[in-house]
Amino acid sequence: MSGKPKVFISYRRDDSGYVAQAIYDKLAQHLGVESVVFDVDTIPLGIDFGEFLNAQVSQSDAMLAIIGDQWLDIRGADGKRRLENPGDFVRIEIQAALKQGVPIIPVLVGRATIPIRTDLPRGLKALARRNAAEVRLGRDFHSHLALLVKGLDRVLANEATRDQPDTLLPPPLEDTITNSIGMKLKHIPAGEFMMGSPDSDAFYDKREKPQHHVRITKSFYLGVYPVTQHEYELIMQQNPSEFKGDPQRPVERVSWDDATEFCRKLSEQENKCWRLPTEAEWEYACRAGTTTRWYCGDEEKDVGRVAWYKANSGDTTHPVCEKEPNAWGLHDILGNVCEWCQDWQGGYGPDAVTDPVGPSKDGGRVLRGGSWAYPVTSCSAPARSGTTQGNRINAVGFRLVTVPPSYDRRGD
Question: Less Cβ crowding at N or C end of the chain, within 10 Å?
Fold first, then answer.
């Protein structure tokens, strides 16, 4: 955690709305209004609420899951428990926190007790093992609130020390990890960078402006290379690529929807969160501490060492890892195939931002890195492009993100 903490409050209005409001008021006074995410009414019109909630949870340092007497058993119009509906807001919120390793404090109100595992749907069962706080109405209400705030402060203090090298928590992270299908990922540390192109860049495109300061507050693991045809086929049982012949070529002709479905299936297989990088995570990892247009410098003549692009590709993709990596060990992050990002397309603002997730919605999804079909100037760290999320192109693939094991307390 860097800067101000962020706390997400999950609750049901018709189960614990009054207590949730009181908790919000207390935390807003204690931490500041901007540090507390409280109500789904803040979801922008027209946006996919599941994506929005996942993004908000992923940027939070802790979640309070407020559980009242009817939390488990409130039913929808179909007569079924709301928790059984994958589109239920509360289920989406808590499941996202468990997947992404966000600390969860169950807060018991009324006569509620912590749910048992057998009463919870798959994806929420780990909630049953979380140590709960109590905030009961009555003469002890305000003392319970004070104890909750004190306990939350301890959780936030632990989160604040996660990326500090001189702490005993968490244990040292591995530089490289390998998942169940043999995919290798590099640890990308938290940090700050200037996103976009400076005025001195002779090759800049207006979409790369204005250059602005970005803070990435949580480290993550990013694929060493884009997902290969072999890896894609292991999960999806098909290979849609146009350029076949070597299973170590990057998969292409995959839409944003295909890529996120791959993430969903791999997440289910490994019981942990896999996703696409945000655009900010992508550029931060691509630059790897550099400030030049390409991570090999500002000279166009040097780009052939690190990327496959129009002039040297032979109008085809190539097996991954044949070009030099960047300073953080990432191959093919420039050229070969463009890479889907999580964000909708949109313009930059001039202000400094922390863990940005892009605009609420636009006409397409972000693509980064350029490809075998792009000119060399478009295969660069700040270069931006995009297309509709259902489009399948023979120059577009993707690579994956997951969170460090020390953040992943999902359980089952």
Answer: C
